[in-house]
Design goal:
single chain; about 625 residues; alpha/beta; Rossmann fold; seven-stranded mixed beta sheet; 25 helices
Length: about 625
């Protein structure tokens, strides 16, 4: 039966419309004459009915009423029905001029016909919606956000009953919306009433339709939901939904990046495209968090090829597999090797001839590098020197160094070596005497990157805790991996030779707050279900990271999330002499001399007490004698 109706739905629609037109005109006569039809009106009704049906069906077809989808009835469809009925009534009245029809019949018929046609569509929509959702037990949900996104979400939930959602109320922080009804659904209150009303209305899920909500707002909502035993889920903004199909399919769990409240990055693709499209791009550290994301982002700009360079063959193998699967139209060449090997770098650049190099390979773990001074220098400093020199000799046009906020007034070996790598990058063109546009991009911690606190906290929560935090006031700048990679590409497109570009990281986040939010996201209570322990500051760590004394040492660019560091590098000659002394110290294994060289090259460097203690102990034992 259903298949027959679907196959002949237009004919069925017109038969139903003919029945409704007949009923509307009959009801109009009955209402006009108080349900007492006397001659000659019964005969007049039967005579006029065929003409009215033909005229109305013709105009209904012209207005497209027979093609309306019964299950997707909207306000524009109602307007179309009203316009079609008005036109049909006017046409019927014109054709019936001279007849004995009372003029009030036309008005009554217009109202009755419009009501019956709209009512039939509404009844069919309700029936189909209930039938599609009958197999699932409806889950009672509330929508937080009674604005445009929330109302649109309500419409889509109702249009997709197979999702099993029954919207029982709205919540909104605007007091003026309290107790309003939006499409029949009442606004139950705001954040203050959330926990109470969720329990009272037996709400099982809260859909967050608040794209511009701050991290603190989302955290407060999350806490109230957990207090009521309710699951919160995030809904994308309207702009993010375009081109991605049904919105309800994109409802997802709240993520830690949502709670940071950062605004999305807006790329100037017109500026980035010429730097990447059709060009061969080399990415060092391609198996790492930032390097692999750079490969993905670059692939979206249709480069000629991407060369992924990394000494970790397992990580390189994984990104190679992913790139071939996700971007089959982009040639990806995995190359195993270390930036500490000039010969290997020369081979790779000779074989592939890249026009641009994105240098993300580095040792980055702060406490680990405090106890591996020479390895940090050899990789982060001399490895960068090798790559800069080989790139210049191979005719590379653009060299982009991925740097760190720890290079600002460094308090650890990792930061000092990254700052020195920045200086090497700044003076690359003068040192190599080649037209190499070399620049550096500096940003803070990346959410979810290898070795960051997010994977550690996730593991500790999964194991039942405790979650370990070094200090209650430890703060860091954070951004997501895609956001960092996108801003690196944006910076590379707009930066000039020798510049250090600083990404706007928002406000620093307290690690303790991050730990609490992650516990909440796991559906647990901080301090009760999962404990938090303080372990003390590790060697080389600072309580507060900096991005350059942001406003004082940087100047703005045309992009609101990118600034330029205003510091001046030393002359290439001074830098070369300092690097030569540093090489000698590393070759001799003299930690004290190496630290002094770092201090001379990076005057802001303040060695950690852990490192100084090691140097003094080695000198006391006569290690350098």
């Amino acid at each position: 039966m259903t298949a027959f109706l679907l196959k002949h739905r237009r004919a069925v629609a017109e038969l139903l419309q003919a029945a409704l037109v007949t009923l509307a005109l009959s009801v109009s006569f009955l209402l006009r004459f108080d349900f007492r039809l006397e001659a000659p009106y019964p005969d007049l009704l039967l005579t006029a009915l065929p003409l009215v049906i033909l005229v109305k069906l013709a105009l209904f077809r012209y207005f497209g009423l027979r093609d309306l989808a019964w299950r997707f009835l909207g306000f524009r469809d109602l307007l179309r029905m009203a316009a079609a009925n008005l036109a049909a009534s006017v046409a019927a009245a014109v054709l019936a001029i001279g007849s004995a029809f009372p003029r009030s019949i036309y008005i009554i018929d217009l109202l009755a016909s419009t009501a019956l046609v709209a009512g039939a569509h509404a009844a069919a929509k309700l029936f189909l919606d209930r039938r599609r959702g009958a197999e699932k037990t409806a889950q009672r949900v509330a929508i937080y956000g009674a604005g445009r996104n929330g109302v649109t979400l309500l419409s889509e939930v109702r249009a997709n009953p197979e999702m099993g959602f029954d919207v029982c109320g709205f919540f909104d922080d605007d007091p003026a919306k309290r107790d309003l009804r939006l499409h029949g659904v009442r606004v139950l209150g705001g954040l203050a009433q959330l926990a109470t009303m969720l329990a009272r209305e037996r709400i099982e899920t809260v859909l967050l339709a608040m794209p511009s909500a701050s991290g603190n707002q989302l955290t407060a909502i999350l806490e109230a939901c957990h207090a009521a035993g309710v699951t919160p889920r995030r809904v994308p903004a309207l702009a993010d939904r375009i081109g991605r199909g049904v919105w309800v399919d994109q409802i997802r769990e709240v993520r830690i990046e949502d709670l940071l409240g950062r605004q999305p990055v807006e790329l100037e693709r017109d500026h980035i495209d010429p730097r990447l499209k059709g060009r061969v791009i080399l990415v060092t550290g391609a198996g790492g968090s930032i390097g692999s994301e750079l490969c993905r982002q670059i692939a979206s700009f249709s480069p000629g090829a991407i060369v992924g360079f990394d000494q970790a063959e397992s990580a390189l193998y994984e990104i190679d597999r992913e790139m071939r699967a996700r971007f089959p139209g982009v040639a990806f060449h995995p190359e195993v090797g270390s930036i500490q090997s000039p010969r290997r770098l020369e081979e790779v650049l000779r074989d592939h001839g890249p026009q641009s190099v994105y240098h993300a390979a580095a040792y980055k773990h702060v406490p680990l590098m405090e106890s591996h001074l020479f390895q940090a220098i050899e990789n982060n400093v001399f490895g960068t020197c090798n790559l800069v020199r080989v790139a210049a000799e191979a005719g590379v046009e653009d060299f982009v160094l991925i740097s760190s906020d720890k290079a600002v007034r460094p308090a650890n070996v990792m930061g000092a070596t990254k700052r020195l790598a920045e200086l090497v990058s700044q003076t690359a063109a003068q040192s190599t005497h080649r037209p190499l546009r070399s620049l550096a991009v500096r940003f803070g911690n990346v959410l979810g990157s290898s070795g960051s606190v997010i994977p550690l906290f996730r593991q500790q929560i999964a194991e039942g805790g405790p979650v370990t935090v070094t200090h209650p006031e430890m703060r860091r700048f954070f951004m997501t991996i895609p956001e960092a990679a996108q801003l690196v590409l944006q910076s590379a497109a707009m930066g000039r030779e020798g510049e250090i570009l600083v990404l706007e990281m928002g406000d620093p986040v307290r690690i303790l707050d991050l730990a609490r939010k992650m516990i909440l996201l796991s559906g647990l209570r901080p301090g009760e279900d999962i404990g938090i322990e303080f372990t003390g500051i590790r060697p080389g760590e600072k309580l507060y990271e900096e991005l350059s004394a942001y406003e004082e040492d940087t100047v703005p660019t045309r992009h609101p999330q990118i600034r330029v560091f205003a510091g001046r590098p030393p002359s290439p000659e001074i830098l070369e002499r300092g690097l030569a002394q540093l090489r000698a110290a590393v070759a001799e294994g003299d930690a004290g001399a190496a630290v002094l060289c770092l201090k001379e090259l990076v005057p802001d460097y303040n060695p950690s007490s852990y490192l100084l203690k090691r140097v003094f102990e080695e000198r006391a034992r006569g290690v350098y004698a």
